[in-house]
Amino acid sequence: xxxxxxxxxxxxxxxxxxxxxALLGTAPASAQWIPCLGDATTPNQPWTPPDLPTIxxxxxxxxxxxxxxxxxxxxQRLAFKIPPGAAxxxxxxxxxxxxxxxxxxxxxxxxxxxxxxxxxxxxxxGPTLRARxxxxxxxxxxxxxxxxxxxxxxDRGDRATGSGCDETSVYPGKTGDTFxxxxxxxxxxNIHFHGIHTNPGSTGDNVFLExxxxxxxxxxxxxxxxxxxxxxxxxFAQCERQLGTSVxxxxxxxxxxxxxxxxxxxxxxxxxxxxTPGVKKLWPVNAAQLERGDWPQYYIGAxxxxxxxxxxxxxxxxxxxxxxxxxxxxxxxxxxxxxLQMGQAPGTHWYHAHKHGSTAINVGxxxxxxxxxxxxxxxALNDFYGKGWTRTQPVxxxxxxxxxxxxxxxxxxxxxxxxxxxxxxxxRPVMTMAPGEVKLWRIANTAGRAGVFFxxxxxxxxxxxxxxxxxxxxxxxxxxxxxxLINDNYQASLSPALTMMAGNRVDLLVxxxxxxxxxxxxxQNMVDPSDLATQQKTTLFSVKVAxxxxxxxxxxxxxxxxxxxxxxxxxxxxxxxxxxxxxxxxTPPGGAPAAQHTIDGKKFDGEVGAVVLLNKVEEWQIVxxxxxxxxxxxxxxxINPFQVTEIFDPNQTLTDSATGQTYNRYVFQKxxxxxxNQCVLDLNAPETWKPCGASGPGSNLLxxxxxxxxxxxxxxxxxxxxxxxxxxxxxxxxxxxxFVDYTGYYVLHCxxxxxxxxxxxxVVQVAPRPSPYSHE
Length: 776
Known about the structure:
It contains nine helices and 41 strands. The protein is mainly beta. The protein has a domain of 198 residues: Cupredoxins -  blue copper proteins (Immunoglobulin-like, Sandwich), CATH 2.60.40.
């Protein structure tokens, strides 16, 4: 339990208060400890866990998800661990203080936000977006952040002179950080639609956009929903006409497709911004991009998102596209009809700000939200459980809310595990279920740092909430990363162990026990599987089982998984047309080079790191050459999901069923082979550094868009000449993906977002056709 006395303390210890904010980020001058949500109002009373709040929603109507997502700032009541470097635990001391944070809000979203119990609102994810496969997404994005509430986090970070790295760069030992691969520009934003299969350019899932806060007059933002409504209404109407002609239409293609009034306003606002002394000038960058026929990058105050969620209706496999077909935006233009190759998977997806340099702090502030895309998956569940049932089920947004990226592992009182997990903005909230009831839990781990390992659901024991008897809950997994499971996998998924790395999603059908009571959903915090040996279990949220017992379908698991989309058939060997290898590597602070996070030896510089031809299928080997500390970098790629076909984890351990002894799967001397299922690798033959007994990719593979790259291992041995040597053995996995339907540029990166901000990202280009040129 939390320490009630600590919760009731105020700022009587100036030393403690000063230390906490020195480590956790700059606090407003008036900051002080305040009562936490659920804190006792009378002495000697226990803390009361809050109810799980319902997140407001923006819902599609008549085939269009039309709404406004507002980015603003406010002082919220944030919870902090004391000391901040403590490992997550139910016994953590939690203190609360007001902090300025950047927040998403859905204009007109329902239901309304919960009423605050004090002078400051509590954190809440952005609005849940809810649409259906085939719908148009038409969102007005407004950035009304007041940069003066965040020191110099917008302008100093992008000044033409100076370091280029702003106040959020409090990473201890940050030697080697250079602009743009550092924390900067955290009041600039865009929206990345995580798991969405759509156009990666113009007004689609375009992560290269940089939308600055509205300029202000008299302290109020100049750009408002009302000021852009006319131009955006006209744009959305034109976008609907254009995208209605082809399921694969990519429109707008050029800047002149946007309304003239909006283009004029943007040029005026950007030019006015450029007149601020010392800032990097933005309009000349846009002008140069326009001269080349590219989509401009910088905007002020508002931006329209418009794209379709493509619905696959044809046979699979679809007709082979013509090799010379060009499709997409840019100076070539042109749109040739062709068949949709994949389509949008219905399921639990999510969104977050993705401006390079500020993803970690923005996600940490709570700028994340779920995007539920309905389709045949929901229809089948509703046919079984009742009309509209899926819309009544809980959306669970996991995050680690805070004000400073926390990166250091180990020494100096730091921990790389970050703040405690929250669910829908609350620390350890309570969900209610009826005895025997089945609910669909849509879970998204939107944390920017840590993975979540689910250890089970428990009654309280003598050692704490997570150390009692198993509570009798059962669960079956129905989807992974927004893609439903095929029926064979669903049938085999009764109460599985689950790991959700940062960015992963899981859908679970959960059946409550028939015995009333309050039970803890228990997890461990991890960035690598090796953490599980030392991390304590802690309560993610609780489930109160009470009321009238469920009956009928409400107390049963659906017998057969929803019908599986044909376009998600396994990728076969015959489909694969090319291969690539990408190497992720982190080096430690104080090393040479110091604290570098790279892909293929390069920090992000905007250059293309991987080129793929449109409608080709490739198999990539994703390698982890991080050896100084165990970090399983979560690999994430935009636009198209992938299937994992091979995994090599040199640190893998197994447990002997007879003795309970844990041992290494891989050894490097024949004399070390103590168990028959151990594999001997040759330190001097890297070609043997692969999974033993591998027999091909298998079938019924899960689709994902995030997967942890197994960390590397250092082994002492002797080289071919008999000399002592330390061998660095990388971990890796192989994945296959169909790079189909949409041309353009997008990114892949580590989903430990502080690594991405500091360089562990590269650009993917899907090209419409091979180059016609040669060099002789």
